Known about the structure:
The protein has helices at about 20-30, 55-65, 90-95, 110-125, 140-150, 180-200, 215-230, 240-254, and strands spanning about 5-15, 40, 70-75, 155, 160-165, 170, 175, 205-210, 235. By secondary structure, the chain is of the alpha/beta class. The protein has one domain: Alpha-Beta Barrel (TIM Barrel). Strands 1, 2, 3, 7, 8 and 9 form a six-stranded parallel β-sheet that branches. It has a three-stranded antiparallel β-sheet with strand order 4-5-6, with no helix packed on it. The longest helix has 17 residues, at about 110-125.
Amino acid sequence: MSILSALVVSLHDVSPRTRLDCTAILAALKEAGVPACSLLVIPDHHRRGHLLDDADFCQWLRGLANEGHEVVIHGYHHWRERRPAERLLQKFLTRLYTADEGEFYDLSQAEAARLVSKAREEFRLLGLDPAGFIAPAWLLGAEAEAALCELGIQYTTRLATVSDFRAAPFQSQSLVWSVRSLWRRVVSLGWNLLLFRLLKTNALMRISIHPVDCRHPRVWRQIRGLTVRALTTRVPLTYLQWIGQRYAYSAKSD
């Protein structure tokens, strides 16, 4: 038995606020050959509408899960309040890098556990039981990670790793695009093309999409094009599927 060369496509920031763009993206990915994605769902996106208050969204999300898409907890509000007397690095990471969305960057273990537990219970009301948690902007502090382990969350990811808590983190830098300004879009296009080439021999390639990406034609053309190219040599899987087959391979090798 060998590890498959895999492609995981994840769709971030799924919520009632982004549903229209997400629907269009998922349809395009299915046409390109990706039948199922890891959907990073925000329970209460920027405190502007809880998913449980939108019955149509809940039905849509359950339908996607029934089709094979994986639901992943993606923070709770996806928003971090600014704090007084923050250090320069904190300001850079939580304001410039991620526009105040690094919710789990420096939460206490207790507060992280409270929010993740709350999210799990709300997803269970929909008949969903997410195995993974991925922090907004991949900014997951040590105390928040400890809370995930204590709660029995199976895995998380960061920008450069996938961490099944039963094993050592697996190195795989995600392709991801920043579209908030022209210079960010230009840099993203060049960097992701280079990264795609660098990851050619890696067992796992990750393509991370945000709903707003589809509104920028050059960015969206690259995302779709690199996805199609990856699928010529890789099998599309969700994060949970990939972790399962890696774990099975490890057990077989022992």
